[in-house]
Amino acid sequence: MHELSIATAIVERATELARRHDAAGVEAVRVRVGEMSGVVPDALRFSFEVAREGTVVEAARLVVEEVPARARCAACEKEFAVGTPPFLWCPHCDSPTTRLLSGRELEITVIELAEATA
């Protein structure tokens, strides 16, 4: 399960940011996960629960934005959903395409820090 290594990297990045800003902790981490990224969102959520134990991220929520895979046809320029398993064939003009617009994302978009108490 490679989601555990991804969750560990997310926790490490959030911990580093919290320390750099002298934050009391981390309230939430928001990530974007593309449909074709190879990451299973539920497995990432579970792995995050495990990876955050005993860290300044322990109380944080993981908010996952799932990004659907979409492509644009080179022949007719129409956009369409790729689906799972991926089908890179335009449903509008019956042409093959390889131009993905979205669906490969795997990124941290926001880390919400808790304010330090004086």
From TrEMBL:
Ni(2+) binds at H2. The keyword Metal-binding applies. GO terms for molecular function: nickel cation binding; zinc ion binding. It holds the Pfam family HypA. It comes from the Bacteria. Gene3D superfamilies: 3.30.2320.80. Keywords: Metal-binding, Nickel, Zinc. PROSITE patterns: HYPA. Zn(2+) binds at C73, C76, C90, C93. GO terms for biological process: protein maturation. Involved in the maturation of [NiFe] hydrogenases. Required for nickel insertion into the metal center of the hydrogenase. HAMAP family: HypA_HybF. Belongs to the HypA/HybF family. This is Hydrogenase maturation factor HypA. It comes from Streptomyces triculaminicus. The gene is hypA.
